[in-house]
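Take a look at the protein record below and tell me what you see:
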Amino acid sequence: MNNLEYTFVRKDPEKLGDYLTKHYGEYISVARIHERLEIVWHGSHKGILVHRDGTMRNLDGTSREPDEELALQLQKDGLLCQEIFDKVATHLLKQNARSLSEDWHCMYRGLEGQSCAVGCLIADEHYSPRLEGVGIFEPSVFNAVVKSLGLNRMTPGEATNLQNLLSMLQNTHDMTPIERWRSRLTEIADAGKLEIGVLK
């Protein structure tokens, strides 16, 4: 888990993706590392690190000329994995209880208006009782989350990374003792190189 990096998932991928392809070539992944992005290209291990202020360097440590337009694109696009982590962590720690059915099964929408780690991301118009008892790797649940978050499209790699993050957050709600939620969320953030400001 310590080597896990979450893909940079974009709310409006086409504009940033087109810019990267036009100016840097076809890329295979864009991963968030704190306040930087790591961009890796198809067919090679070459890549660059891009800071949100536009400063850049190659992965081999050599410097590159800054790209102010790319920095502007990064500031406009959502770093969604961080946003999801922040929203779910804040929700779980505030609720401080599992979302359960009357017979004590974990639910996306439970009793007394409670919701689980994934359920809190699903908008009312995309929720259905048929989702209950189905995991995040099932298309029906994942599509409900994707539509609720307003994502237009994702690569298979981006979808898998997002599902992995959601799965770990869901398992925290379902399997981890409530008194250990904060420490488990810290472990997830450390593994994914996410910030933990909401946990303090």
In short: Residues 156-175 form the longest helix (20 residues). The radius of gyration is 18 Å. The chain has two domains: 13-76, 80-199.
